[in-house]
Amino acid sequence: MKYFLNLSLIFFVIVNAYAGGKTDKKLEIQITSQVDAEIVQVFRIEQGDKIIVDEFPLKTDGNRIFKDTVAQAFYVVKFNRVERKIYGKAGELVKLIVTDSTIDYVKPNKENKILDKWYNLSKEARRYSVKYHGLDSNELFKRTPFYDRQRALESASEDFHKQISKYRGDDYFKNAMHLLVDTEMTYFKVFFMQIPLLGYYDKNELPEDLYGSIKNEKRFSDPGLLEVFEYLLPYGKLYSGWCQYKDYTKMKPTIEYFASPEIKVAYLLGWAEMDKSGVELEKLEKKYLHLFKSGYSLQRLKKLQEQFAYLKDSSKTPNFEFQKLDDEIVPLSNYYGKLIVIDVWATWCGPCMKARPDFEALAEEMKDEDVTFIGVSVDDSDLKWKKTASNSHCVELRDKEKAFSKAYGLTTIPRYMIFSKEGGLLVKSAPSPKTSDLKKEILKHLGK
């Protein structure tokens, strides 16, 4: 823990000077595949989250080079359920190779060797906490293996910190690794407490040598955390829960446990963007607007306010923007002039996929009526959406930024909605196309 406490100010200066900064030199990641990979995704870690920056298919022996203009950053490369965290910096090429079950380095530089060593060192403790889904449930009920592995990792991490300190090279990376190690050590422990299969037991059972040092006012003091650790939202929530579990009569908002204003803002925006009801945004506006000072945070806030404007004034429907199959961005107003019937769906939603043929059949049946049928996908994957939607006879759009689904609080899909010729919402939850009721509802609004 001493490394974490001593490096906060240093890393704050370095992050502000370098992280996310633009450069003329390109940061490159080359990915080669030994298998037919339907989708490979590249995420950049920023604002305490993973932000997708590229996705593509790869044929066997095919390769792709992703290029970025930032000075340096941490990334996550994902194929199926396999992930690899890497570090890249301007002027250097990171090479990876994808197999059926792994994403491996090809001649990694010294920074990625250090990062890889940490992941190998923490593999068992990680497996018994944040990666618990792959464990037999009987193993989880044996809490001792996690405690033993965590103790072993606590000891090993001290030596690992010393190795990081001996590293000569990129100061940003050195300090980032110290911060990442200390953060993940704590995250493993607080995550283990809430694994559903274990139940919510008396936290007094937890070993003092592991859990006694969790609460520390310096833990969320370094904004560099936002660039190296992608689980800010669950980590922050679990940490605050631990800090106040002994006395719930004196509960405080989670961000009151964060010293860094930048981390507070990232946490507030993260939850507000995830929330589909507008409640989190309303709380933010009432209590925390004074924290928003940077141009970037104010821009994100303004975008959120525009998305949720409809919830404050139901007479105004936002002119949402959607992605077309050819990647053109178009507003919903492009389709005004006719009654609009929308099917909100996703490729991963079984009921959605089963009902799509019925929706398309109804669109074909009513093609001579004054109505436009539109499929609105909430898929994260551009490729999966295009592969499915390209065969449709309806207008197919993608709610890429989730502005539409968030504004209307759509927590379940499929969802069928009817809008007037002027874009006003008429029916928020229309019947399924698998029955004749949807057609009757449409005809009613056509005045037939």
How is the secondary structure organized here?
Blueprint (H helix, E strand, L loop, with lengths): L1 H17 L3 E12 L3 E10 L2 E10 L4 E8 L1 E8 L2 E8 L3 E6 L4 E3 L4 H12 L1 H5 L9 H5 L1 H24 L4 H23 L14 H4 L13 H4 L3 H12 L17 H14 L4 H9 L7 H13 L1 H4 L8 E4 L4 E3 L7 E7 L4 H16 L5 E7 L4 H8 L5 E4 L4 H5 L7 E5 L5 E3 L9 H9 L3
Parallel strand pairs: 1-7, 11-12, 12-13
Antiparallel strand pairs: 1-4, 2-3, 2-5, 5-6, 7-8, 9-10, 9-13, 11-14, 14-15
Helix pairs in contact: 1-6, 5-6, 10-11, 10-12
Q: Notable features of this structure?
A:
single chain; 448 residues; alpha+beta; Glutaredoxin; 2 domains; globular
Query: Which whole number gives the mean pLDDT?
Result: 86
- Kindly provide the radius of gyration, computed on alpha-carbon positions and rounded to a whole number of angstroms: 25 Å
Determine the strand fraction and express it as a percent band. 15-25%
Reading side by side through the largest sheet, how are the strands ordered? 10-9-13-12-11-14-15
Overall number of domains = 2
Helix content class:
40-55%
**Largest β-sheet summary:** 7 strands, mixed
Coarse shape: globular
State the secondary-structure class.
alpha+beta
Count of DSSP E strands? Answer: 15
Low-confidence runs: 1-19
